[in-house]
Amino acid sequence: MRSITSQYLARYRRLTGDRSDTVLPVTGAQRRFLLVRSLDPSGRPDVVPMFFAFPHGTIDPERLRAAASRLAARHTALRSRPSVVRGTPVLCVADPDVGVTRPALAPGESPAEALRRALESWDAQGPPLRLFLVRDEEREEEILAVALDHAVCDGRSLARIVGELGAAYSEEATGSHAAPGETENELAAYRDAVLRQLAAEERAETPEAAAYWADRLRTLRAHAPAPGPARLPEGARPSGVAQARLPAYDGGVSFPGLLDACRSAARELYGPGRTVPLGYPWGGRPPGAEPVVGCFLNTLVFPAETGPEAGLGTGLGTGPRSEATADAWWDDLDRADVPFDAVVAAARAAGSGWTGGLDGLLTVDDDSRRPPLVLAGVEGREIHVDGRPVRGPFAVSITQGAEIRLRMVWDRAVLDDGAAQRAFDALTHALRPSEPTVR
Fold first, then answer.
1. 289 CB-near residues (< 8 Å, 6+ apart)
2. Beta strands at 275-282 and 374-375: parallel, antiparallel or unpaired
3. Residues 120, 123, 129, 133: what is their CA dihedral angle, to the nearest 10 degrees?
4. Is-contact 46 33, C-beta < 8 A?
5. For range 95-122, the mean pLDDT
6. Do 4 and 345 meet the contact criterion of CB atoms below 8 Å apart?
7. Of 78, 79, 145, which is closest to residue 118 (Cα–Cα)?
8. Strand partners, 283
9. 303-332: per-residue pLDDT in tens?
10. Which of 364, 435, 395 is nearest to 265 (CA)?
11. What angle do CA 22, 293, 290 make, to 5 degrees?
12. 46 within 8 A of 23, measured Cβ to Cβ
């Protein structure tokens, strides 16, 4: 039987003859986002916003629009629309179309509320890169939201987008055109990178890899109930948030240690004796490909066994449980190129009732890899606008650098605020070094 990637490529080639410069194939990561979108009753895509506060008067909206348009013209993914044509997920290349929207504040509305409202009204048929600018009169600042459809960018693209937007803003030109040949060369590089990624995914989909994931995930069930909007009072924010800062450790916390810390949080939320599906992005551009902007990071699934408390890992990479987590995680990485939809299919073929839903998400960032957004020599202060809808029951983001910054958000239609806070406390406790014993 042919692999999911082989079947996808065959459909794409029947659709385009494999020669189209306007309808491009998508990676396995992009297929996942398009699938999730199709299953959402509202058709809501995953949106990745970055928020920056600047002193009032710093930003020239027309100059910003021109800079963003030049950025989109240079990068195929940022001017293309994710779509499904005749049942086949594709990326439809279009002209750059980036505007600067200035949402008007309703009476009594805060700048954060206006931005949340603007993002929640995202039209899935529109351009994948959009800018929103709101003035904060109280702070004498302007808040800029740089928002992207997740199907056209991954975490490794964000730093480049921020850096190049600032560079484009500093250019003298006010038009939206890229240099001659620049767009065509990047289109060829992007297409080559996607085809290389699909070739890697096709090679990875072996019977042995399918058997591995089937065995690894056969006990999975999604333990959080389906969202129930009626549980939220009218006007309540759809998500809750908790955050903390911890001292950094030499070498940082290991990824298996972070998985064990999330396991502690999952135990508080779902109880002991469960196997909870946790997702995390992993991967990179395929060997030989240019470092193009796009969506290439696969979502891997970690079956977190919540077990008795004594068996949980410390989150610091020590103890028998943490060693077992590390061993299993390294084995998972050996099959990391198998696309998410193929992993779900393998688990279901082995008798699992799991449909691909994730009870938790973990993302990890290094603050040294994200440059600040600088416009006209002024560095924007990156901020968070909380309370936006989240795709899964809970999501944890960890930024490592001079300190460890923890954030956890949760869907308040699914998880109780008190239980979520206890889960965050367990997560934080797992990442704190034990106090030395005084004798």
1. 189, 192, 193, 196, 197
2. unpaired
3. -50
4. yes
5. 94
6. yes
7. 145
8. none
9. 999 976 544 555 554 555 678 999 999 999
10. 395
11. 90
12. no
Q: Which of 320, 297, 316 is nearest to 308 (CA)?
A: 320
> Please, which residues have CB within 8 angstroms of residue 64's CB and are 6 or more apart in sequence?
100, 131, 133, 144, 169, 375
Q: Are strands 47-55 and 275-282 parallel, antiparallel or unpaired?
A: unpaired
Q: Give the tokens for residue 37.
A: 């979108």
Decide: 301 and 31 in contact? Cβ < 8 Å.
no
pLDDT band at 226, cuts 50/70/90?
A: low
Integer Cα distance of 77 and 62 in angstroms: 23
pLDDT, position 67: 96
Matching residue, tokens 């351009």:
127
Are the beta carbons of 380 and 374 closer than 8 angstroms?
yes
Per-residue pLDDT for 437 more than 70? no
pLDDT number for residue 18: 67
Q: What is the dihedral of CA 293, 296, 297, 298, to 10 degrees?
A: 160
- Positive or negative: CA dihedral 289, 293, 298, 304: positive
- 133's enclosing H/E stretch is strand 129-136
Cα 318 to the chain's mean position, in Å? 28
pLDDT band at residue 300 using 50, 70 and 90 as cut-offs: very high
Give the Cα separation of 271 and 287 in Å (integer).
Answer: 42
Predicted pLDDT of residue 316: 54
Structure tokens at 298: 């696969």
The single-letter code of the amino acid at 4 is I
End-to-end CA distance of the chain: 65
pTM of the predicted model, to two decimals?
0.91
Contact 412, 240 (CB under 8 A): yes
C-alpha span between 214 and 208 (Å, rounded):
10
CB 306 within 8 A of CB 273: yes
* pLDDT level of residue 435 (50, 70, 90 thresholds): very low
Mapping DSSP to helix (H, G, I), strand (E, B) and coil, where does residue 214 land? helix
Taken in order 309, 314, 317, 320, the sign of the CA dihedral is negative
- Residue 122's nearest CA partner among 178, 40, 195 is 40
Structure tokens at 40: 């959402």
Positive/negative CA dihedral, 284, 285, 286, 291: negative
- What 3-state DSSP class applies to 224? coil
Question: What phi and psi, each to the nearest 5 degrees, are found at residue 235?
Answer: 85, -5
Residue 251 has pLDDT above 50, yes or no: yes
Give the pLDDT mean for 34-44. 81
Instruction: List beta partners, residue 148.
Output: 48, 129
